[in-house]
Structure of Methyltransferase domain-containing protein:
Amino acid sequence: MTEPMKEKAYDRAYFDRWYRDPRSRVRAQGETRRKVAMVVALAEYYLGRSVRNVLDVGCGEGVWRAPLRRLRPRIDYLGLDSSGYAIARFGRARNLRLARFSDLAELRFEQRFDLIVCSDVLHYLRAPELVRGLSGFAELLGGLAFIELFSSRDPVDGDMAGFIPRPPGWYRKRFAEAGLMACGSHCYLSPLLQRSVSELERADRQESR
């Protein structure tokens, strides 16, 4: 009989190792700031206005909040994560709440989000939880989603515990089923914005001519 897989502990030691220790951290200095600037600019390009609210799914300690606030001081930021440690330590100060990815199938808020961020999360999730959570994106998203992940065809550095190497086509199919349109650089558009997108802006077209 095989033993059940031990659930990963997203505790202080985990975040110290992968996000603060210069010997093992997965983000180079300034990388998150540059990524935030790119994502906000692209979201505002398609929205035709400034980003007003952000949902950060799998937010960890909420590291996107500060660079988002530097760009847009009045932005409304909400982070969701399954780490009891992160919510207990930073929940009140950074507006983080306890939730699993699959909870997005039912969770709804007073308004849709201009930007949904989900960085470095999906390749650790089992398929049922991933598909269930994605099913809620079409109703939660009013603008652009940044869904950063690694596939079986990508070189991966950092935390490999629980990493699930799926082919790129598997993810493309799941995103399409959830109503999301790829527009490049891990970014996907809400169904509400897709009518205004030209064919060559789409990153999901595979044509021979």
